[in-house]
Design a protein that fits this description.
Order of helices and strands of chain A: HHHHHHHEEHEE
Largest sheet of chain A: 4 strands, antiparallel
Oligomer: heterodimer
Structural class of chain B: alpha+beta
CATH architecture of the largest domain in chain B: 2-Layer Sandwich
Low-confidence stretches of chain A: none
Distance between the termini of chain B: 111 Å
Mean pLDDT of chain A: 92
Order of helices and strands of chain B: HEEHHHEEEHHHEHHEEHEEHEE
Distance between the termini of chain A: 39 Å
CATH class of the largest domain in chain B: Alpha Beta
Number of strands of chain A: 4
Strand content of chain B: 15-25%
Number of helices of chain B: 11
Mean pLDDT of chain B: 87
């Protein structure tokens, strides 16, 4: 998993819960670099999972809620870092289907070894979009957080229904985005 | 843990992260350098390959064209410029149908597709148009480009080859005429000899009759005066006795009949030879196939008469056949001569020279085709040889007896020039039948 996810996670923990929590989270993460992550490096995603579990213990919040919130944070980071990408679309329905072509293609140019999740899209009329997420890592919650932050960014009035898919371990999920009447 | 210590730890992490980032940057820089090196090598390699391919295209004797699916020429090599007599700039962007009249039709796209070779050895023959308006024969191989772009054509001008082939065909014909000449001379010599003998006999007989005619003249002269002397009558009787009139009355008509037969025989041979040669006929002509076969059998008589009898069974209702007469005669001659050779070989093998073999030549109509069979009771063709009998220069005959061209020519004439078929039925030791079918 790309280092930017780790550095942003630790920034979020530090900003929200302070440096002491960061230290405990890092201790629990049993990280190979002792927490010395760099955004352009690549690290084992299980370190992140262990850190999230520790954060859940520290805060008493559910893991899924924390990961979802982290997804929202990540979206804001991308929005501030690459504003042009979001500006080229006018709505969630327009932006999400461009992720594979616009973002993943660019990611592969910078990081040829990056293991990116797959997204499939299906439009059912003007008011509904289905996004199927598939990854080798269990970050459907992260994807949900990203999607919800995206909807907020464009100011769309959409309802998101999530359906976990086999093997029901967070690696696959279907998100149905429906426009509210 | 106090705040200083926490900050110290964070600083420590940031330092290590920076070092790792710098290390990653160095690694990426190195990879980028190596990648550039490889790209540079690859570019050199591609450039070299492009130069080599360009050199091949520039020096290829064949015209190489790439075409779009609609027949628009996308690229040509210098050979195309030479072959078509048009500058490259004029060729590129023009329609290939401007060069190949056969393609000038509403269904040009389908015709283009039909030009594509089923394999890379299938060359197609057509005619092309030079810038000066003259047409010339070409041979081309068309293949489909892999990216669905269109076609690649490799095309060569075969004018010179066609001319050489025509010369070769003429030479081969002359060769067979030459080979037949000795036999024909022999065939003519026999009737000429007995025409000569009979004429000499008639000359002698006329000499014998001269004294009788003189005595009869004197008799007629005296009889007009009303008185014929006994001496005159005696002279007539004596001359008649000397001339042996009974003998002459028997022999002279026979001699005249034999002489007429002889001259007719010679005339037939000369006529057959003329018909066999068919000089100058290059277009297909409707001919009486039966008559052509009879001529061929006649001119080749010396080739088979010592080893076989030839029986013909020719369908009298056979329609006229459109063909190249000279070529078809040549094809039939080759089969008859081969049949005679096969019988001769069998007679040698079986040491049976007393009994003649049999060659049967027959024709009949089968639907919209004419079938011509040449059957012999010679050696037959061994199974291992059969697949190669129509190959040029393939022969099982001893050196000097066969060039291996006979059946190759027959195949070319029947199949390629007339769109017919050739089938062979053979049994080793029993004989062979060649079955030719020509479209009507």
């Amino acid at each position: 998993m790309k280092g930017v996810v780790f550095t942003e996670f630790l920034d979020l923990v530090e900003n929200r819960f302070g440096l002491e929590t960061v230290e405990r989270v890092l201790d629990a993460g049993q990280t190979a670099t002792n927490g010395a992550y760099t955004a352009v490096g690549t690290y084992d995603h299980r370190e992140l999972l262990r850190m999230v579990v520790q954060l859940a213990t520290e805060t008493g919040l559910p893991v899924s809620a924390l990961v979802k919130a982290f997804g929202g944070h990540l979206f804001d980071v991308f929005r501030d870092g690459y504003p042009g990408v979001l500006e080229s679309s006018r709505s969630t329905f327009e932006f999400l289907p461009s992720v594979e072509q616009a973002i993943h293609v660019e990611m592969r140019k910078l990081y040829p070894d990056a293991e990116l999740p797959d997204f499939e899209y299906e439009r059912s009329g003007d008011d509904s979009l289905t996004v199927v997420y598939r990854s080798s890592r269990p970050f459907a919650d992260l994807a949900e957080g990203l999607i919800e932050a995206c909807i907020r960014h464009y100011g769309d009035d959409l309802q998101v229904a999530r359906e976990d898919l086999p093997p029901f371990d967070g690696t696959s999920a279907r998100f149905t985005l429906t426009r509210r009447r | 843990m106090d705040e200083i210590e926490l900050l110290q730890r964070k600083l420590d992490r940031e330092r290590r992260a920076r070092k790792e980032a710098e290390s990653l940057l160095e690694q990426k820089s190195r990879e980028l350098f190596q990648s550039n090196e490889q790209q540079s090598l690859l570019a050199d390699c591609l450039f070299e390959q492009a130069e080599r391919i360009q050199s091949i295209l520039d020096t290829a004797p064949e015209a190489i064209l790439t075409l779009g699916r609609d027949g628009t020429i996308a690229s040509v090599n210098p050979a195309a410029e030479r072959i078509f007599g048009r500058p490259i700039a004029a060729l590129v962007g023009s329609k290939v149908s401007d060069l190949i009249p056969e393609l000038q039709a509403p269904d040009e796209t389908q015709r283009l597709q039909a030009f594509v070779a089923k394999n890379h050895l299938d060359a197609r023959e057509s005619r092309a148009r030079h810038a000066d308006g003259t047409e010339f024969p070409i041979e081309l191989i068309a293949s489909e480009l892999a990216d669905d772009y269109g076609y690649t054509w490799m095309l060569r001008d075969v004018s010179r080859r066609r001319a050489l082939e025509a010369q070769l065909a003429h030479a081969l014909k002359m060769e067979s005429v030459g080979a037949l000449a000795a036999g024909i001379a022999h065939e003519i010599n026999t009737p000429i000899q007995y025409v000569g003998d009979n004429t000499r006999f008639l000359d002698d007989a006329f000499g014998d009759l001269d004294a009788l005619f003189e005595a009869i003249g004197k008799l007629l002269e005296e009889s007009s005066g009303g008185r014929v002397s006994d001496d005159t009558l005696a002279a007539v009787r004596s001359a008649a006795d000397a001339a042996d009139l009974d003998y002459l009355r028997d022999e002279v008509p026979q001699a005249i009949r034999q002489s007429l037969e002889g001259t007719e025989r010679v005339a037939k041979i000369v006529r057959a030879m003329k018909e066999f040669s068919h000089p100058g006929v290059e277009e297909k002509t409707a001919i009486d196939l039966n008559r052509a076969i009879e001529s061929t059998v006649t001119v080749s008589r010396n080739e088979w008469k010592y080893v076989a009898e030839v029986a013909t069974d020719l369908d009298p209702d056979l329609p006229l056949v459109r063909c190249l007469p000279g070529d078809l005669n040549q094809a039939v001659l080759n089969l008859v001569v081969n049949a005679a050779h096969a019988i001769e070989k069998r007679r040698e093998v079986e040491r049976n020279v007393d009994q003649l073999g049999h060659i049967a030549v027959s024709t009949r109509r089968v639907g919209d085709q004419v079938e011509l069979r040449v059957a012999d009771d010679g050696t037959g063709i061994p199974a291992d040889v059969l697949p190669r009998i129509f190959d040029p220069f393939f022969t099982t005959k001893p050196v000097g007896k066969g060039t291996g061209q006979g059946l190759a020519i027959t195949y070319s004439v029947v199949v390629e020039k007339h769109g017919g078929t050739i089938d062979v039925e053979t049994e080793s030791g029993r004989g062979t039948t060649f079955i030719l079918r020509l479209p009507l």
